[in-house]
Structure formats: C-alpha cells, structure tokens
Amino acid sequence: MNSVHSTVSAPGQPVGADLSTTTLLTTWRSADRRRKATARRRVAVNTALTVASFVGAAVLWDLLRVVGVLPVQFFPEALEIIGRLGEELAAGFSGKLLIATGQTALTWLLGFITAGILGVIIGLAVGNSAYASATLGPLLRFVRSTPAVAFVPAAILVAGIGLEAKLLIVVFAGIWPILLNTAAGVRHVPPQYRDVAKSVRLPNLEVARTVLLPTIAPSIVSGLRVSMSLTLAVTVGVDLLIGASGLGALINQYRGVGNITSAYAGILWAGLLGTVLNLILLAVERKVLFWSPEYRRKNA
C-alpha cells in the first residue's frame, strides 16, 4: 500500500523544511537573543557600577579634605581637578598635556610591542622544552623578582636618559606577564594535539603556528592585558624619574612649580588612558577569542 508523505513547513520557512530543523533553529535563535540581552544587561550594570565608583571616589576625596585628613593645600577639590583636565584637553596640541601624552604613548607602544614579541618567543621556547625550562627557570624567576626601577641606574649608564633607556626599563617590566602566561599555556596544551602534529610530521615551526599559538592564544592575551597596564604605569614612572619629556615629566614639572591642580589632572589623565586601553584590549579579546572554549567558560 502506497503511503503519502506530507512535509510540514513552519511559517516563513521554505516549503519542504523539516519541522525538527525549524524547531532547532527557532530554539537557537531564542537562546541567542537571550544571550545578547544578558550581555547588554551586564554591560549596563558594569557601566553603572563604574560610574558610581568614580563618583564615590570623588565624594570620598572631598569628604577627607573637609574633615582634615587630606591637607587642602596639597589636595584640591575633585571638581577643580576635573575642570583643569578639561581645560588642558580643550587646549589641544597648543597646550602641554596632549604633546606629553604623545611622547609617552610612543615610548609605551614601542616597549609594549617589543615586550610582547620577546615574551611570546621566549615563552614558547621555555614552555615547549623541558630542558630550557629547567635551565632558564631559576634565572628567570630571579630576574623577574627584581623591581624594574632597580635597573634605572644601569639603563642610564648603558643608554643615557633618552628613549633607549626608557625602552629598556619598560620592556623589562612588561615582558614577564607575557612570557610566563605563554610558557604556562604551552605546558597545558593537550598531549593529543602534539600527537596529531607528530603523526602528520609537521615541522616545529608549523606546529608552533598551527597548533600551539591558536591553543595558547587566551593565555597570551591574558598576559598582554596585564602587561599593557603595567608598561603604561612604568612608562609614566620612568618619564617622571629620568625623562625630560613625557607625561610623567610634565607631572613632575607641574609639581616643581607648585601647580598642584595641574599635576593631579595629569595623574587623572594617565589613569583614564590606562582604563581606555584596557577596555580596547577587552573588546579585541571578545572579537578574536570568541571561538575559544576557555574564553567562553571564563565569560559564561
């Protein structure tokens, strides 16, 4: 006996579409909408909390001035500092702040890129070789425990007080989070990944490019995030200590002439720059690592 098979199509679906497929697609779209709505709520809550924390910090600052904990001659009002920062930014490149920011940004960017490249290369070598890890591990731990500012005299002796000395210190400070995160990521690569690479006889460089780097990308990005903030802070500090230019030097100059409000405006501006850079790297991380199971677990 012949049977007649009829196909049920959902509204808006092509004729002949299977009902189970349509149901799965509808469920997936609904779940995707819920995820996006949850993400939007999370962003809104985080933004509100961030604004509230800044407002609370400003109120606490002024309150401590009023009760006498902070001497008013050395600690201007929060709104006065914010207003001065606005004036400095409104002056554009005819003022001092943006020019000093550009000088600091150049030092930071060169140092951060150099630290990133060296950190990934050395981290791959240390993490991928038990012999290298055993040989270099103790030395790296010893050097890492040394504060970057301790190398300021040596950097001045070797490279003077120009850009080269600043870069030496910034690279030294910023390389460790990247190197250590990369090495740890390599050591935790699943063994079966390496076994597959060996079975198809991939060269070492090809293994690093197609197996190791994609697998350890979340670890590298985590190291980059830490290093980015650290190198910016060290750059401003080095400008303040040995630099004749840059944001730190400008802050020190304002302090030296008694322009305390402008000095605090420069400090506030440096903090805002670090916050913006961190947000940019977080956005890049979301775009680049959306496929990573480790990243999805961390941000679930």
TrEMBL record:
<feature type="transmembrane region" description="Helical">
    <location>
        <begin position="167"/>
        <end position="186"/>
    </location>
</feature>
<feature type="transmembrane region" description="Helical">
    <location>
        <begin position="139"/>
        <end position="161"/>
    </location>
</feature>
<dbReference type="InterPro" id="IPR035906">
    <property type="entry name" value="MetI-like_sf"/>
</dbReference>
<feature type="transmembrane region" description="Helical">
    <location>
        <begin position="43"/>
        <end position="61"/>
    </location>
</feature>
<comment type="similarity">
    <text>Belongs to the binding-protein-dependent transport system permease family.</text>
</comment>
<keyword id="KW-0812">Transmembrane</keyword>
<feature type="domain" description="ABC transmembrane type-1">
    <location>
        <begin position="101"/>
        <end position="285"/>
    </location>
</feature>
<keyword id="KW-1003">Cell membrane</keyword>
<dbReference type="Pfam" id="PF00528">
    <property type="entry name" value="BPD_transp_1"/>
</dbReference>
<keyword id="KW-0813">Transport</keyword>
<keyword id="KW-1133">Transmembrane helix</keyword>
<keyword id="KW-0472">Membrane</keyword>
<dbReference type="GO" id="GO:0055085">
    <property type="term" value="P:transmembrane transport"/>
</dbReference>
<feature type="transmembrane region" description="Helical">
    <location>
        <begin position="105"/>
        <end position="127"/>
    </location>
</feature>
<feature type="transmembrane region" description="Helical">
    <location>
        <begin position="263"/>
        <end position="284"/>
    </location>
</feature>
<protein>
    <submittedName>
        <fullName>NitT/TauT family transport system permease protein</fullName>
    </submittedName>
</protein>
<dbReference type="InterPro" id="IPR000515">
    <property type="entry name" value="MetI-like"/>
</dbReference>
<feature type="transmembrane region" description="Helical">
    <location>
        <begin position="230"/>
        <end position="251"/>
    </location>
</feature>
<dbReference type="GO" id="GO:0005886">
    <property type="term" value="C:plasma membrane"/>
</dbReference>
